[in-house]
Amino acid sequence: MSEEKEELQERVMAELENVVDPELGIDIVNLGLIYEIQLDDNDNVTVLMTLTSMGCPLAGTIVSDIKTALQELQEIQEIGEVDVQITFNPPWDKKMMSRYAKLALGVADN
C-alpha cells in the first residue's frame, strides 16, 4: 500500500475516534470495534467493524455517526463514498479494547 493510502487510512481512523458508542461513552476505535479500513482506487472507504453485541439496538446510530464523522473528508474530496460493513467474525471481546477504554470502563486488564 502506498504511503498516501496509509496516511489517508490513518486520517479516517482519527475521525472514527470521534464516534462514541452511545451506551458505553467510549469511542469505537478504543473499544476495538474497528477491524479494518479499506480504500479502493477511487479512495472510497469501507469500514469493517463489529458491535459489542449481536443484538445491539444502536447499530444504525453508530453507522450513521460514522458516515457523519467522515463527511468532512468527503467534502474536501479526500475520500469518496463510505460503506460500513458489520461483522461478528471474530466476535468482539473485552480484550480488544485499548488500555484507555479498559481504564475508563473499569475493566480488569487480564
From TrEMBL:
It comes from the Bacteria. It holds the Pfam family FeS_assembly_P. Residues 10-78 form the MIP18 family-like domain. This is Metal-sulfur cluster assembly factor.
